Amino acid sequence: MQNIDVNNGAGWRPVLAEVRAALAETAIKRDRAGGTAKVERDLFRRSGLLTLAVPAAFGGIGADWATVFEAVRLIAQVDSSLGHLFAFQHLQVASVLLYGSAEQQESLSRATVEQGWFWGNALNPRDPRTRLVPNGSGYRLDGTKSFCSGATDSDHLLVSALDPTDTLRIVALPTDRSGITVLDDWDNMGQRQTDSGTVSFEAVAVDGAEVLGPPGPGGSPRATLRACLAQAILGTLYLGIAEGALAAAVDFTREKSQPWPASGAATTVEDSYLQLRYGELQVDLAGAQALSTLAIAALQKAWDRGEAVTPTERGEAALAIATFKVAAARAGLDITSRLFEQTGARATAARYGLDRFWRNLRTHTLHDPLDYKLKEIGSFVLTGAVPTPGLYS
Questions:
Q1: Which pLDDT belongs to residue 4?
Q2: Measuring CA to CA, which residue among 100, 128, 339, 330 is closest to residue 226?
Q3: Does domain 12-118 have CATH number 3.40.50.720?
Q4: pLDDT per residue over 288-304, tens digit each?
Q5: Three-state DSSP class for 146?
């Protein structure tokens, strides 16, 4: 594994290519097996890529969001479960930067670099069962969180909980803290190696310095960019899966398919119906790719504004990201379900693993309803109102 030169903006690319190739080689086998991809997680740890979003001032690579999303998309093309975990690493890093005090931003970011932390997620905001209550000079954390992607084998967790006033608070805790139990209960049909199961908290001691803030999750307009970033990550994962699925289908058609007798074609790639269908899918994909560029640029613009970002600027970024996310989900679901029409019955053999693209995308696109994104977009079209900042918009 090569070492990343943090002073060279292109230094991450050959390292990512090496990691991507290793993931692609075992992706189908691991998808069948499920469970924790410990070897692959450690590969990311050794690569240095987990520090991609950590500011250079704190020892990280300090990449912009276009670079981070490009890296996520390239991984998702071959292995969306590991792409998901890789993306959520950067989401947790960004959450610290958005929610934490200046001291917390520096200390947690430097520890991420120096100790090689792989962050886990226990931030499901719709789960009210986790409570943070004062306890002596600190706090006590009790409850459970579901959909905790990457919690297994993580070094540190970000956890959301309600305090006695029902205010949402975010805490950063070592995963091995006494009272934290990561359950092995993720058995969904897709994203099978994201370990997105349950984490329980029983009388977990929390120091005051481990509670992020100010500003915390609602303390400033800039802090609300966390939801925009999360939604952009989801769209990028959808896009990566769609790209990977289409590429796999094209390879199968070129290398393994036989021309249908009635086509009159000497080779499969000369079949006019297949050319038509692949053209349709490519147009759908190209639209989502173009919207990705616009969405990430809008996010970066809002991010760069820092505390000066306005509600309108934030809302414009949210709308661009919502538009991209919907387009990527639709294109991806179309591509991953229709690819078998292009590849034929032979392609349904388990050894080819082409079904994993649909299972992964179908599972992930249920994360939050696309209808509400469309409603926000339609509201803007009709009234000019930008989305109200929330944990999903």
A1: 64
A2: 100
A3: no
A4: 999 999 999 999 999 99
A5: coil
Beta-bridge partners for 139 = 134, 206
Indicate the residue type of 309: V
DSSP codes joined into one string, 186-205: ---SSSTTS----EEEEEEE
CATH classification (class only), 222-383:
mainly alpha
Measuring CA to CA, how many Å separate 59 from each of 106, 172, 281?
A: 10, 20, 42
| Cα–Cα distance for residue pair 369/361, rounded to 1 Å | 14
User: Which is higher by pLDDT, 9 or 18?
Assistant: 18
- Which amino acid, one-letter code, is at 142? D
φ, ψ of residue 168 to 5 degrees: the values are -75, 125
Non-local (6+) Cβ contacts of 263 within 8 A are: 270, 271, 272, 273
CB 71 within 8 A of CB 89: no
CA dist., res. 267 & res. 258, Å (int): 7
Residue 78 has phi, psi (to 5 degrees) of -110, -25
Angle (CA) 368-370-373 rounded to 5° is 105
Lowest mean pLDDT among 3-7, 104-108, 126-130, 172-176: 3-7
pLDDT of residue 46: 96
Q: Quick one: which of 266, 388, 370, 353 has its CA closest to 33?
A: 353
| Domain layout of the chain by residue ranges | 12-118, 121-210, 222-383
Q: Which CATH superfamily is domain 121-210 in?
A: Butyryl-CoA Dehydrogenase, subunit A, domain 2 (2.40.110.10)
- pLDDT tens per residue across span 366-393: 999 999 999 999 999 999 999 999 989 8
Decide whether 121-210 matches 222-383 in CATH topology.
Answer: no
pTM above 0.85, yes or no: yes
Q: Which DSSP string corresponds to 339-362? A: HHHHH-GGGGSGGG-THHHHHHHH
